[in-house]
Write a structure and sequence with these properties.
Bound molecules: adenosine-5'-triphosphate
CATH topology of the largest domain: Rossmann fold
Keywords: ATP-binding, DNA-binding, Nucleotide-binding, Transcription, Transcription regulation
Distance between the termini: 40 Å
Strand order of the largest sheet: 2-5-8-1-9
Shape: elongated
Number of helices: 17
Protein name: Sigma 54-interacting transcriptional regulator
Low-confidence stretches: 1-33, 283-291, 357-376
Number of strands: 11
CATH class of the largest domain: Alpha Beta
Pfam family, one: AAA_lid_14
Strand content: 5-15%
Helix content: 40-55%
InterPro entries: AAA+_ATPase, AAA_lid_NorR, P-loop_NTPase, Sigma_54_int, Sigma_54_int_dom_ATP-bd_1, Sigma_54_int_dom_ATP-bd_2, Sigma_54_int_dom_CS, WH-like_DNA-bd_sf
Length: about 375
């Protein structure tokens, strides 16, 4: 029953998207990874948030593209002609954070530069400051950060001059800030100051529809100067099913690494499954876990496998092989077909995995900076 409800919700979402016609994004401007409902939803939200000046808090696992999203929101905002300044809190001690963010005057500490230095807040004036891994900010520094955000002015270390700053603040974290608050390692007042417009970057396992598309983009980037490179859809033909069934805990960063590895060890032949690491070999999909996403993944994986082995599979045999009710398989196939993932042929070929619709996205490799297309 739960599966049915989830599938119905998914197909309703699809109908909504179709009826709205997605007219706000001309098809040739679609980012290369605009396939999954999850990322479409995130980008729609991001587009709306870009026009506001309120603080944004980007949540999501490591490697999901939070920094890219922050940069893209800036690019789509009225501040786009101003600077975008990024700082990673995880890598810095309290003292370093203070001097880097607020700046310092000459002679204010040993090693201070002659003439002093403007801090990152000053450098981001009229633009956006991106505070990455904000959950790692040391507690004493959080008080100072809160004051700057409230007063919209900074004073350099060792200085007396008050410097007004006009910046949009975007923060990101892969940690659960509420848990950190409960443990008294993150300030609640700072949390409410930052969490005005929250947005979540989906994990790659929740946007499996985008995996092959991203993989092909990364492959194209690696191979663009290689003369004997084979087309990207051919390249992944033997391993596509493993990509669908793996959970990608390192998200897009891990996918990037895997493609780089494959291209290095097998530059001009489609890599075989045995070239993948043990982890990627895992075929375990939890059919009863997250509902429709798992069913879609399971179905896609099974069709991809049959296609690899050149055995034909149809709706009935799929339902029997997966021990799923035929009605569930039918709904999932309809949805996957409407989304362009599969083709349902009448003849002996049965169900086929579609090639990613590259034409939709153009072949501009610069569009790998996908979110910058938020500006359209
Ligand atoms: N849509 C995309 N297209 C191409 N590459 C992407 C995309 N999204 C993310 N990446 C790449 O994935 C990697 C991780 O992205 P990013 O650093 O933005 O993630 P993050 O969530 O900020 O990670 P962390 O939490 O570890 O800082 C980067 O190399 C980035 O270029």
């Amino acid at each position: 029953m739960r599966i049915r409800l989830l599938l119905r919700r998914l197909s309703n979402e699809h109908v909504d998207q179709q009826s709205q016609g997605q007219q706000d994004i001309p098809s040739h401007h679609k980012p290369p990874y605009l396939h999954s409902q999850e990322i479409k939803h995130t980008l729609e939200l991001a587009r709306k948030m870009a026009v506001s000046d309120a603080p944004i808090l980007i949540l999501g696992e490591s490697g999901t593209g939070k920094e890219l999203l922050a940069q893209s929101i800036h690019n789509a905002s009225p501040r786009k002609s101003g600077p975008f300044v990024a700082v990673n809190f995880a890598a810095m001690t309290e003292n370093l954070l203070e001097s880097e963010l607020f700046g310092y005057e000459e002679g204010s500490f040993t090693g201070a530069r002659k003439g002093g230095s403007a801090g990152l807040f000053e450098q981001a004036h009229k633009g956006t400051i991106f505070l990455d891994e904000v959950g790692d900010a040391p507690l004493p520094f959080q008080v100072k950060l809160l004051r700057v955000l409230q007063e919209k002015q900074v004073r350099r270390i060792g200085g007396s001059r008050i410097i007004p700053i006009d910046v949009r603040v975007i923060t990101a974290t892969n940690r659960d800030l509420k848990k950190l608050i409960a443990k008294n390692i993150f300030r609640q007042d700072l949390y409410y100051r930052l969490n005005v417009l929250p947005i979540k970057m989906p994990s790659l396992k929740d946007r499996k529809a985008d995996i092959l598309l991203l993989a092909e983009k990364f492959y194209d980037v690696h191979c663009r100067r290689q003369e004997n490179a084979i087309p990207s859809d051919m390249y992944f033909r033997l391993i596509a099913s493993h990509f669908f069934s793996y959970d990608w805990p390192g998200n897009i960063r891990e996918l990037q690494n895997v493609i780089e590895y494959l291209v290095t060890i097998s530059p001009s032949h489609p890599p075989s499954p045995d070239m993948l690491s043990e982890e990627l070999h895992s075929d375990t999909i939890n059919v009863h876990g997250n509902g429709c996403h798992d069913i879609h993944s399971l179905i896609l994986t099974t069709i991809a496998k049959c296609n690899e082995q050149e055995t034909s599979i149809g709706r009935r045999s799929l339902a029997a092989a997966l021990a799923l009710p035929e009605s569930v398989v039918r709904k999932s196939l309809t949805c996957l077909q409407q989304e362009g993932f599969i083709q349902v042929t009448k003849g002996r070929k049965g169900l086929l995995i579609s090639k990613p619709q590259k034409a939709l996205f153009g072949d501009d490799l610069a569009s790998l900076d996908a979110c910058s297309e938020l500006t359209t």
